[in-house]
Amino acid sequence: MAEWPRIQKFCHQLSAQSRGPAVLDLGGLRVECHVTDSDRWAVVLHQLCIDWRVPDTRTPTRHHFRSLVESWCATVDYLTEPLQVVEWEPGEWTALVRSARPAEWPDGRRSYYELWWHGLSNPWRARLERKSVAADELAQTVGMVWPRDVLVRCIVDAHRLWHQLWSVASAE
Fold it and tell me: What span, in angstroms and rounded, lies between the C-alpha atoms of 55 and 113?
């Protein structure tokens, strides 16, 4: 993949000292990282947003959107918990994805990944956060610790899935 070095450089230069979100634009794919802390090996993200721009030559369908969401859940199996679709809203082209098995902590808190997918407009967007909740409390967004190499893999996978989706669509 030609973009690998550029993605790797972006992920390894992320720093908590940067002002605002760090943005990587690969044309059809745009990644926005909200970094709250970092060290040599990992970053703590408050939020990770991925935008996929639908090619002008394509007419997206709900099938394409659903295929991307399901492919993402199946591919990104290297996070601490596997992902699953919790809710589809076909009329709005939205999906809610969460950890299939939330992490349980000794103090009774649970934490999980939560992704909101929006595909009605162009670009399609996924917003990934880590939530933490205790018994009767509301869920709160907490930092996600990502090894830099895992973040590289995640972005590379997002880029690859996007290209696969539209190369399959061109064959249809």
Answer: 29
Contacts of 95 (CB under 8 A, 6+ apart): 65, 66, 69, 85, 87, 88, 89, 115, 116, 117, 119
| pTM for the whole structure | 0.91
Determine the Cα–Cα distance for residues 32 and 63; give it in Å rounded to an integer: 26
Q: Are 98 and 112 in contact (CB under 8 A)?
A: yes
- List the chain pLDDT tens, one digit each, 172 residues: 688 999 999 999 999 887 789 999 999 999 999 999 999 999 999 999 999 999 888 889 999 999 999 999 999 988 888 999 999 998 899 999 999 888 898 888 999 999 999 999 999 999 999 999 987 889 999 999 999 999 999 999 999 999 998 886 555 5
